[in-house]
Amino acid sequence: MTRYFFRRLLQALPTLLGVMVAIFFFVRALPGDPARLYAGQDATAAEVAQVRERFGLDRSLPEQFGLYIAQTANLELGTSFRSGQPVAQVLRRHLFNTVQLALWAILVAVAGGIVLGVIAALRRNSLVDLTVTAVSILGVSTPSFFLAMLLIYLFAITWGVLPVSGSATARGLVLPTITLAAASLGTIARFARSSFLEVAGEDYVRTARSKGLGPARVALKHILRNSLIPVVTIIGLQFGTLLSGAVIVETVFNFPGLGWLLIQSIDARDYPVIQALMLVFALQFILINLLVDIVYGFIDPRVSYE
Q1: Number of alpha helices (DSSP H) and beta strands (DSSP E) in the chain
Q2: Does residue 7 lie in a domain region?
Q3: Whether residues 158 and 65 fall in one domain
Q4: Helix axes 2-28, 61-73, angle to 10 degrees
Q5: Are residues 181 and 130 part of one domain?
Q6: Is 11 within the bounds of a domain?
Q7: For 297-304, which contacts have Cβ atoms below 8 Å and span 24 or more sequence positions?
Q8: Three-state DSSP class for 87?
Q9: Least buried of 46, 79, 234, 235, by fewest C-beta within 10 Å?
């Protein structure tokens, strides 16, 4: 497994390089001049040139790109334009909040999605199945910003039981967690239902039933475990989406995570922080996909890592 792990990491290097190229040119395609922004609208041309020199923006694009690649290869993320602090230090202040929010959201989504999916499959074509399907579709199709504002109106403004702004506290995490988990819960529930029904029709399941095994044992031991393989893929993708896709939720709730930091950095044209955040989001997808492949081996012993 160790060889497989490092081989997958090496295979990811070209992807990371391509992402870095795209990030570099995307950031510099943003409208506005950071030097003018930080020097001030009333600054003279000399003052703007001085700021541009301090940020290294006076160099040619190939020089800036080469410096960016060299710094990243040495695990140096540069210095924030806005705060003057190392980018790694800026990210650390917000990383834990986003990871904490994403972990709670994926926990709610996985637990709720699998339970609802299995219940719907066991009660196929019943009112319960139709209700779960409707809830799943509603969760997937409802825009996160609309759900966030609806929850704020109900729980924070109307009833006053939860705070309006999100924070890394137990009460402050409730509304952002529900908002972030809603779409993933609906997706996981739909896939869990479909996968459960597909496995339930296999020959070995019918054989287990013919041997007199109880419905609960057949469902848990023979169907559920094998039906989790495609669901694990969806869970991995959803977790990556939660980590990098919390931008809207964190912005609406003013939650101090990486998504909130990305919006603030784009507004401030803080190139080093934007580049670092986009790279972190890309890297997390690569690592999560690798983790999903490894989890396959624990669920299905037939999976080989050769």
Answers
A1: 14, 0
A2: no
A3: no
A4: 150
A5: yes
A6: no
A7: 297/1, 299/225, 299/228, 299/229, 299/232, 300/226, 300/229
A8: helix
A9: 46
